[in-house]
Each structure stands twice: as C-alpha cells, then as structure tokens.
Amino acid sequence: MKKKRIVVKIGSSSLTNKNGGLCLEKLQEHVQALARLKALGHDVILISSGAVAAGFTDLGYTSRPASIVGKQAAAAVGQGQLLHAYSQEFKKHDIVSAQLLLTKQNLLAKDLYQNATATLTELLKRNVLPIINENDSVSVDGLTFGDNDMLSALVSGLVQAQMLIILTDVNGIYRDNPRVNPEAARYDFLAEIPNELIKATSSEGSSVGTGGMKSKVEAAQTALALGSQVFIGTGSGSGKLVDIWEGKGDGTYIGDDPQATVKNSKQWLALHSMPTGKIEVDDGAALAISAQGRSLLPVGITKIGGRFKADDVVEVLNPAGEVIGKGQVNFSSEDLAEIKGLCSEEARVITKTGKRQVVIHRDQWFSATRKEQM
Ligand SMILES: Nc1ncnc2c1ncn2[C@@H]1O[C@H](COP(=O)(O)OP(=O)(O)O)[C@@H](O)[C@H]1O
Ligand SMILES: N[C@@H](CCC(=O)OP(=O)(O)O)C(=O)O
Q: Which family does it belong to (predicted)?
C-alpha cells in the first residue's frame, strides 16, 4: 500500500463543552481516532482550533471573548494548554506530536513558504504528527486566516494531501442552514464546489466556531483545486476517521479520487504571494501566456506600474485592464522600462547579456483565467 497524506481539521465546535470551554473527553476521542488513522500507515496532519476555548476561563472571561484582542489573549493562554493536552494524549499511543503556529505572513515570501514546507516534510519523514493552528496572538487584522478552514485547505495543498477531512458539529453540507431550516436536505456527494454554492451557503456557525459552513465550502473548493478530495462532516468513537477515510463517513464527500495535484511553486504564486507591481501586455502576449503556455517576452509589454525588484511577483493585465495572472519577474521595474516593447535581439543589446530575454518564465507564472491550472 502506498503511503498517503491525510489532513484532519477539527473545529472549535468539535472540541468544546456547553460553556464554550475545551472539552478534554472530546479531545481524547479525536486523538484515539487520529491514532487509528495513523496506524493504517499514512501521514496524518492535524489542524486544530481550540486555543481560545482552552484559554478564556483562566484569563477571567466568563464566556468566549468577542473582541480580537480578547481572543488573541485567550489564545495566548490556551494554545499551550491545548498542545499540552494533545501531546499527553498522543504519547499514550506512542505518537510524537509537534506544534506549528502559522500566520498568513509566514507564507507570503517564497523562502518562508518553502521553509514551512521543509519543516512539515521533515516532521512527516520522522513519523511525527504535526498539529497546526493559526498563531492567533500575533496575527494582524486583515492578514489572518480567520478561521482554520482555509488554513487546512492551504496545508492540504502544501503537503499534497490525498484527503482533507473537516470535522465539525454538523453531518455535512445542507441545502440550507439546518439550525434555521431543519427540513433542509444534505448533499451526500458533490463532484465540485461551484461559486453559486459558496454564495448560497450561510456563514452563521455555532456559538464557538468562526465562518460557519460558508468558510468550509470555500476551503473545500480550494483544497479540491489543489488536488485533495474533501470530507465535511462528523463522527463519533475511535473509528470515525478510519470510517471517513474508507468512504463510510457521516457527511458530504467532495471530489472524485484521485485529483490532479498542483506544484508547490504554483500554489505559492496563486494563493500566498503578494504582487508588488503591474505589467500591462498586448493581446498577442496575453494569449501566449494565458492560453498557449508560453513565457512572457519584452516585446509584448506595453506598460509598467509600480516599483518592483527582480524576483518580485507582479500582476499581469490585458489591454482591457483585466488581471490575467501573476508571475515572478526576472527584471526590476527600472530595467524592464528600458526593454519593454523591444524584440529579444534589441533587448539583448540593452541588457548586454547573451541570455534569452524572458520577463516571466512560464514555470513562474500562474494564469488566473486557465481553470485547469488550479
Ligand atoms: N448549509 C449548511 N449546512 C450545514 N451547516 C450549516 C449550513 N449553514 C450554516 N451551518 C452551520 O455551520 C456550523 C458549523 O460551523 P462552525 O460553527 O464554524 O464550526 P467549526 O467550529 O467546526 O468550524 C453548523 O453548526 C451549522 O449550524
Ligand atoms: N485559531 C482559533 C480558532 C478559530 C476558529 O474559531 O476556528 P473554527 O472553530 O475552526 O471555525 C483557536 O484556536 O481558537
């Protein structure tokens, strides 16, 4: 049997008691289920919420804080307790666990993204079970994952997981919020997540969760595009994750098996990198890079916007001003200004290099308009 990678996301709603605090019995059951899944011989990565839930009482709050600063302080108190509980429980199953706290900023730069990937890969190689959460206490407003659903999808892509299992307090995606409309029917299987479904799904969640079903459906769309099959639902007992993995889970399965994976460098470009400038191209260049899989050459460039360095990421726009993709540039904005619109021969004279004058190589390009790429 070939070893597979499985990412399991456990939301606050599946880790808490009636008062919103951390429920140790639930955590113990999850660990038993994770241990049984890992015993099948697969790599298992856990994305766990629960830091705020674990910390708010010791901080003096009577209920889960609503303010950002309150949540950040509660997470600072609770994350240590959460990880202590997990590592103690995993030890009982002879599993070494590790903590990774991520923020969006940790993945913005390519070297940081590669570093996180390398650390995760090394942990998995050494048979460790990584436990990931957002680093809530230092996350900056506007640059947070917000809920752990999207974080779990991004991690699934990063480790090229076969399956992302999102455990929550409801047994799947319903056509309407089942708390509001108990008659709503469930989707047992979805081949894909259309944008209309995301729009139609409510972000109303449990009293402790963030994002409701909407953020899960959005995360499922991303994970699917990155090559992971997805399950959203619930379960009980130590066999629940093995059951889900074997297709017998109580919830919604999304995507057929197996999905085409996306290279990590493309994932970084598409989902993490922050463009620092813009390049406008003519129709011929737009067609070449977005539909014909070619690299971008100086001759097709009509306009340069912003200041950027070589290796920065820029947005590329067509003559109508629409963003057609993002790419890592080989020239700074100053150098590019000197060769824009020139054919390669002319550009070579100016840059005084013998090399082909490629502005964005097709391997460093992500097309926003070619669906099959993502
Ligand atoms: N269409 C829907 N199908 C299923 N659940 C939904 C739907 N719309 C909203 N929900 C709500 O989403 C909640 C789960 O989201 P959330 O509380 O954020 O969980 P978690 O803490 O596990 O991330 C469910 O309790 C349910 O009330
Ligand atoms: N990172 C936060 C969890 C954020 C959140 O509420 O996520 P979720 O319960 O997955 O919707 C924590 O550890 O408490």
A: Belongs to the glutamate 5-kinase family.
Query: Which residue's CA is the closest to the ligand 2 atom numbered 2?
Result: 49
The closest of 272, 337, 271, 335 to 305, measured between CA atoms, is 337
Comparing C-alpha atoms, which of 291, 292, 283 is closest to residue 370?
291
CA atoms within 13 A on the CB side of 345: 0
- Number of compact structural domains in the chain: 2
Q: What is the CATH number of the domain that holds 78?
A: 3.40.1160.10
Look at the pTM and tell me if it is higher than 0.90. Answer: yes
Q: Give the tens place of pLDDT for each residue, 322-370.
A: 999 999 999 999 999 999 999 888 888 787 765 668 999 999 999 987 6
Question: How is 26-69 classified by DSSP, letter by letter?
Answer: HHHHHHHHHHHHHTTT-EEEEEE--HHHHHTTTTT-SS---SHH
Name the residue range of residue 307's domain. 275-373
Cα(115)–Cα(356) distance, integer angstroms: 31
Task: Enumerate residues lining ligand 2, CB below 6 A.
Answer: 11-12, 49-53, 75, 133-134, 136, 147-148, 209-211
Ligand 1 atom closest to 210 (CA): 18
* Boundary residue ending a domain (235, 261, 287): 261
pLDDT tens-digit map of 153-188 = 999 999 999 999 999 999 999 999 999 999 999 999
Domain finish residue from 200, 231, 261:
261
Which secondary structure element, helix H or strand E, spans residue 365, and what is its range? strand 365-367
Q: Give dist(CA 298, CA 210) in Å, integer.
A: 46
